[in-house]
Write a structure and sequence with these properties.
- The protein has 304 residues and is of the alpha+beta class.
- 19% of the residues lie in helices and 30% in strands.
- It has four helices and 15 strands.
Length: 304
């Protein structure tokens, strides 16, 4: 009898151990589910929208394409560099030319804008970047003691290879050059007759009022979206769009900060995800309602 009793005792111990493991495993699963839902609820609550979509929480928690959050630091000012600045004539409807901003005043940039040389323009990616600029090393023409000028890149200063780079061809590569909107040039220089002044500049975070704006134009078969009023790094390097029926779709840069897709988006609530040049992203969940129309502008969460 001794051997069977030992075997029975060992079996009872094994069963008890198994039941204990099952209780621990079930508790861990319950905790994970509870944590996941708390995280999803917090994440959804932290992305407020102008348009309430009844499927918002479901769409968000079920999204398998959300980029991982790496807690990237906020965009910080860059090093000081040397360049020169001139000015060019125009108005609010022309100072945003090569970036597609149409009217820089209506878009919230004001006249504190600049065209940048080809070496800085980066095929349109620099559109929206912000700079601190100050006049230096020229007491004759610099407004000494004046505060720095803060401007947003909204246009391209094209090269003129018919002229020398140091005498008229100011925007020829590889020169880094600012062609400022005329109304703000005298913030740096004493007078327009200065023509060109030496400056120091650095990239700085863009501080914008309100959220990132999405202006939708085109037609049902071709969507063209202008992304503007971007804070933080200011430069947009990628845009994605998602509809109720259309999965996440990467848009292509058409020109400046205008992004295109042939996806059929009409009649669907739209979500946009914008990634900046510093790797940070912001998602405007269901920012456009299903009855959106071409020509409308919608505002989502901005970079802080």
């Amino acid at each position: 009898m001794a051997l069977p009793l030992k075997a029975l005792f060992a079996s009872l111990l094994a069963i008890a151990s198994t039941l204990s493991d099952l209780r621990v495993a079930n508790a861990a699963v319950a905790h994970h589910r509870s944590s996941s839902w708390r995280h999803a609820a917090h994440h959804v609550a932290g992305n407020r929208m102008h348009y309430h979509h009844p499927r918002r929480a479901h769409a968000h928690s079920g999204n398998h394409h959300s980029p991982a959050k790496h807690n990237r630091p906020k965009f910080a000012p860059g090093p000081w560099k040397q360049a020169h600045a001139t000015f060019y004539e125009g108005g609010s409807g022309t100072f945003g030319g090569a970036c597609g901003y149409q009217d820089v005043v209506q878009q919230g940039y004001g006249y504190q804008t600049t065209a940048v040389s080809t070496a800085m323009f980066n095929n349109g990616q620099t559109c929206g970047a912000c700079y601190e600029v100050k006049c230096v090393d020229n007491p004759q023409w610099c407004q000494l003691g004046q505060p720095s000028l803060f401007v947003t890149a909204t246009d391209l200063c094209p090269p003129n290879y018919n002229l020398p780079s140091d005498n008229g061809g100011w925007c020829n590569s590889p020169r880094e050059h600012f062609d400022l909107a005329k109304p703000v040039f005298t913030t740096l220089a004493k007078d327009y007759t200065a023509g060109i002044v030496p400056v120091q500049y650095r990239r700085v975070p863009c501080r914008k009022q309100g959220g990132v704006r999405f202006t939708i134009t085109g037609n049902p078969y071709f969507n063209l979206v202008l992304v503007s009023n971007v804070g933080g790094a200011g430069e947009v390097v990628s845009v994605q769009v998602k509809g109720d029926k259309v999965p996440w779709t990467t848009m292509r840069r058409n020109w400046g900060q205008k992004w295109e897709t042939n996806a059929m988006l009409v009649g669907q609530s739209l979500t946009f995800r914008v990634r900046a040049s510093d790797g940070r992203f912001t998602t405007a969940w269901h920012v456009a309602p299903p009855n959106w129309q071409f020509g409308q502008t919608f505002e989502g969460k901005n970079f802080k």
